[in-house]
Amino acid sequence: MLTIDIGNSRIKWALFKHGVIREHGVFEYRLDSLQADFKNANLPVASERVEISCVAGQGFKKRFSGLLNSYGYTNFRFAETMAKQCNVINSYKVPENMGVDRWLAMVEAFRVSGANEGEVVCVIDCGTAITLDVISDSGQHLGGLIMPGYRTMINSLVTGAENIEYSEKNHSNDDVTGLASSTQDSISKGCSQVIAGGLSAIIDSHLKCASMKIHCIVTGGDGGWVSSAITYENSHNPFLVLQGLYTASTEIKK
């Protein structure tokens, strides 16, 4: 099975065989060069079917469907956010108002956590937006938060303030601690510390104070450095949404 996770600027994919990822990749894309970007990515031909997570609108889905058909992918499905799936219960009154990538991340996080009694699952997805969701040991989604992602935060600052120079090519999250001695590093470290400190404080205030055991999983494009920067013990899984696609589709197939 080929799984595809379409974000706002990147497309991630993974090829599963017998439940295990055998190949995977990621590529940047733009709307005006989507066909060329897709062609250059050299995705494997799926022998069975293709499962897709897409947060874009129906117009993009229609365009992407045509692209898949033109490359010989005929058996594909766009995943949807459900009221209940794989023992996870959505707290939204209108489930489809929740981003499907966020939902799939929760489905997979709950599965891998083992649903231990007395332990809540905290899922942090770090992309264009950062989402934090909490699931009880019974699978009930207790709610979540949405905040600007790292690059969204920087772009907002650079766009909204005059005379601030920032180069995306020169940024680094290797060391997000301490103070900086240049505008470039001040922006990078400042936004990184706001995110890491904010997430750590949220976990402290909403979960640790309630004396709950927490299984925390971090994913998303910025998940690597965020996982290292937050103060609470966690695991980093860059394939959480793709694995959630596989898990959810397996239940549907049954």
Automatic annotation (TrEMBL):
<dbReference type="Pfam" id="PF03309">
    <property type="entry name" value="Pan_kinase"/>
</dbReference>
<keyword id="KW-0479">Metal-binding</keyword>
<dbReference type="GO" id="GO:0015937">
    <property type="term" value="P:coenzyme A biosynthetic process"/>
</dbReference>
<keyword id="KW-0808">Transferase</keyword>
<feature type="binding site">
    <location>
        <position position="183"/>
    </location>
    <ligand>
        <name>substrate</name>
    </ligand>
</feature>
<feature type="binding site">
    <location>
        <begin position="99"/>
        <end position="102"/>
    </location>
    <ligand>
        <name>substrate</name>
    </ligand>
</feature>
<comment type="pathway">
    <text>Cofactor biosynthesis; coenzyme A biosynthesis; CoA from (R)-pantothenate: step 1/5.</text>
</comment>
<feature type="binding site">
    <location>
        <position position="128"/>
    </location>
    <ligand>
        <name>ATP</name>
    </ligand>
</feature>
<keyword id="KW-0067">ATP-binding</keyword>
<keyword id="KW-0173">Coenzyme A biosynthesis</keyword>
<dbReference type="GO" id="GO:0004594">
    <property type="term" value="F:pantothenate kinase activity"/>
</dbReference>
<feature type="binding site">
    <location>
        <position position="125"/>
    </location>
    <ligand>
        <name>K(+)</name>
    </ligand>
</feature>
<comment type="subunit">
    <text>Homodimer.</text>
</comment>
<keyword id="KW-0418">Kinase</keyword>
<dbReference type="GO" id="GO:0046872">
    <property type="term" value="F:metal ion binding"/>
</dbReference>
<dbReference type="InterPro" id="IPR004619">
    <property type="entry name" value="Type_III_PanK"/>
</dbReference>
<keyword id="KW-0547">Nucleotide-binding</keyword>
<protein>
    <recommendedName>
        <fullName>Type III pantothenate kinase</fullName>
        <ecNumber>2.7.1.33</ecNumber>
    </recommendedName>
</protein>
<comment type="similarity">
    <text>Belongs to the type III pantothenate kinase family.</text>
</comment>
<feature type="active site" description="Proton acceptor">
    <location>
        <position position="101"/>
    </location>
</feature>
<dbReference type="GO" id="GO:0005524">
    <property type="term" value="F:ATP binding"/>
</dbReference>
<keyword id="KW-0630">Potassium</keyword>
<dbReference type="GO" id="GO:0005737">
    <property type="term" value="C:cytoplasm"/>
</dbReference>
<comment type="function">
    <text>Catalyzes the phosphorylation of pantothenate (Pan), the first step in CoA biosynthesis.</text>
</comment>
<keyword id="KW-0963">Cytoplasm</keyword>
<feature type="binding site">
    <location>
        <position position="92"/>
    </location>
    <ligand>
        <name>substrate</name>
    </ligand>
</feature>
<feature type="binding site">
    <location>
        <begin position="5"/>
        <end position="12"/>
    </location>
    <ligand>
        <name>ATP</name>
    </ligand>
</feature>
<dbReference type="InterPro" id="IPR043129">
    <property type="entry name" value="ATPase_NBD"/>
</dbReference>
